[in-house]
Amino acid sequence: MESDQMKNITVVLHDRFTGVGKKVGNELYVPVSLIEQGYDAEKVWNADSNQLNIHVTKARATKIKDYQSQGNYLHFDKNRVENWNVEFDDSDIPKTVYSFGKYYNPATIAQYGLEHYSLYLNNKDEQSKRKFLIVADWFLKNQDRQGGWPYPFDFAYFPGRNLNVKAPWYSSIGLGMAMSVLSRAAFLTKDRTFSNAALRAKFLFKTPVPRGVVAKFEGKYLFYEECPTNPPSYILNGFMYSLIGLYDLYKATGNQECKRLYDQGIVTLKRMLPLYDLGNRTAYDLTHYTTDAGYPNVAKWGYHVTHIHLLAALQSIEKNPKMGKILLRWENYLKGITAEKSQQK
């Protein structure tokens, strides 16, 4: 290529970002740094293969085709709660470090336990089994009279959109994940003390917020709230985690009330899933609908992947065509395929 065929050009992106590109013959080249800035893209450069990959996100979902209530919990063997913003007490239980103090967060504790349960299934490491059972025992010892594990601190969920949640309060994600821990502990130890404790948490899935976790959508669809806010937030990942917990407990005990609560939640999920679909990513909650905020609380890519994992697990149980189409669409968003492009295929 002759040097006089190449020249610098000014590239202006969205009338906001400016960079120096190249014109080589009839081809125009834009600097990757400008694409990253203008489109929130992420690059991966492989020097060995001399290859540049550009993605809307480097986040990737792991396939979940056959969720098992006694098996690896949503690939949590890949989690490392130890690296989160936590400190461990003398009993090896993580306390979450917030800007306002250090507290036991039932969901984080359950995630730590489910991480080590999943690791134990993989490698039969007795240390992972011990850590899991320490967590299961914590849930036995810290269950209150209502059957739950209350959050002992006030919480400002999305200040400006919702009123602060006042302590003590219950979370569907904490309850659901505790059910998944205790169901697996009962399976692992053959001790029904664990599953019997989990069954006592059903009461809160029948109790309206703020005393429990039940909100209603459109006046009739039961939604299990991660944060019992006023007005409701309808946080998607917390709701789906709670459905997984109810399913795990039903499979562990055969309890028909758990099955009914799960089934009611699935009816709600089918109705509400499209409302979280933004055409190129998912919404974290529906506060743009329940408040006067006006704009969606767009899920970060990590939470979008969490939505995919949870929906994939539930779809493997339900095998519902509508849920399957939505799942495929959400998986495609990771590849930069928008809803509109999906329709054109």
Automatic annotation (TrEMBL):
Which domain of life does this protein belong to?
Bacteria
User: What are the D-glucuronyl C5-epimerase C-terminal domain coordinates in residue numbering?
Assistant: 143-331
Alphabetized Pfam families for the sequence: C5-epim_C (PF06662)
Coiled-coil spans in chain: none
Q: What is this protein called?
A: D-glucuronyl C5-epimerase C-terminal domain-containing protein
